[in-house]
């Protein structure tokens, strides 16, 4: 038998992997970090500066929130019994809002929000009162004229004065007063004196008021009395006059003897403040009290024409 041959294995040469030097790896990492840093530094910042408050907008918001409550409180300064309370409320809210918002914006620029609110609230309140007072006064004047028209203005008269009113309306007294109540309309003090002096049924007497101003008076046997103040009275220098009816069989003198005055149509009206049945509370509703009182007094305390 022949010998088996042992196979010869040719050694395979190992291929060495390329050697990557360490400094190449470090350089790549450094470049990445530098690029990231550059990108970060060039990116826009997400942190913004604090914004300036919009004082005007804040003022409008606060005004809208506060107006209804403030209006309700200030409406109580007046009596709306015979008026349009809903309209008054609307006027008050509008006035408060329009005054509060700009005042807040103005003040908030230089003071704290609390201080600005206080100043704006004050301005709003003043605006509301300024808007409501004319409405309230007109309401009172309308109410006074209605009382003069229906006779309820005389409800506070004493019994002797009421008797005189009844007699006057019945035509049993004060005929001269009824005549001159309209006959003197539009005349100057001198024209009145000339007309009254020509009436032989009257008796003239001149005197002075407490302030020294002259007063001319004509009295008649039917309890009528006409007084002319050519230089005005204690309230002004415009010429004034009044046509009055006296109480019957009275021993009183001066204004205590007078039952009532007449208006320019000859209707009986209160002679003075003490005889006015004023429906308004002088303490709570003073503007309306005074407006009502003024209508009553002017009805009988009349201004003469200029000379």
Structure explained in plain terms:
With 307 residues, this protein is an alpha+beta fold. The protein folds into two domains: 55-148, no CATH class; 154-303, no CATH class. Helices cover 49% and strands 11% of the residues. It has eight helices and seven strands. Strands 1, 2, 3, 4, 5, 6 and 7 form a seven-stranded antiparallel beta sheet that branches. A hairpin with a 4-residue loop joins β2 (214-219) and β3 (224-229). α2 (55-75) packs antiparallel against α3, α2 (55-75) packs parallel to α4 (113-150) and α3 packs antiparallel against α4 (113-150). The longest helix has 38 residues, at 113-150. The chain starts with 21 loop residues before the first helix and ends with a strand. Mean pLDDT is 87; it is low at 1-34.
């Amino acid at each position: 038998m022949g010998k088996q041959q042992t196979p010869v294995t040719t050694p395979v040469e190992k291929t060495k992997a390329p050697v990557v030097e360490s400094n190449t790896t470090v350089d790549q990492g450094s470049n990445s970090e530098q690029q990231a840093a550059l990108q970060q530094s060039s990116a826009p910042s997400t942190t913004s500066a604090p914004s300036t408050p919009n004082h005007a907008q804040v003022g409008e918001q606060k005004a809208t929130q506060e107006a209804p409550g403030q209006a309700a409180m200030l409406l109580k300064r007046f009596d709306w019994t015979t008026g349009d309370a809903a309209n008054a409320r609307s006027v008050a809210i509008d006035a408060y809002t329009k005054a509060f918002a700009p005042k807040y914006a103005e003040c908030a620029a230089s003071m704290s929000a609390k201080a600005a609110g206080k100043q704006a609230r004050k301005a709003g309140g003043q605006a509301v009162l300024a808007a409501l007072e004319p409405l309230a006064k007109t309401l009172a004047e309308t109410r006074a004229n209605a009382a003069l028209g229906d006779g309820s203005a005389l409800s506070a008269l004493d019994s002797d004065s009421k008797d005189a009113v009844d007699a006057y309306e019945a035509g049993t007294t004060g005929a001269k007063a009824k005549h001159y109540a309209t006959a003197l309309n539009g005349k100057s003090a001198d024209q009145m004196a000339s007309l009254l002096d020509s009436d032989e049924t009257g008796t003239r007497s001149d005197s002075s008021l407490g302030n020294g101003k002259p007063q001319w008076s004509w009295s008649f046997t039917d309890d009528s009395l006409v007084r002319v103040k050519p230089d005005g009275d204690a309230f002004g220098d415009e010429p004034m006059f009044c046509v009055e009816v006296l109480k019957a069989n009275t021993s009183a003198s001066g204004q205590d003897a007078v039952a009532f005055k007449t208006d320019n149509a000859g209707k009986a009206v209160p002679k003075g403040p003490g005889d006015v049945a004023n429906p308004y509370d002088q303490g709570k509703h003073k503007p309306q009290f005074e407006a009502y009182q003024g209508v009553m007094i002017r009805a009988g305390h009349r201004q003469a024409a200029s000379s």
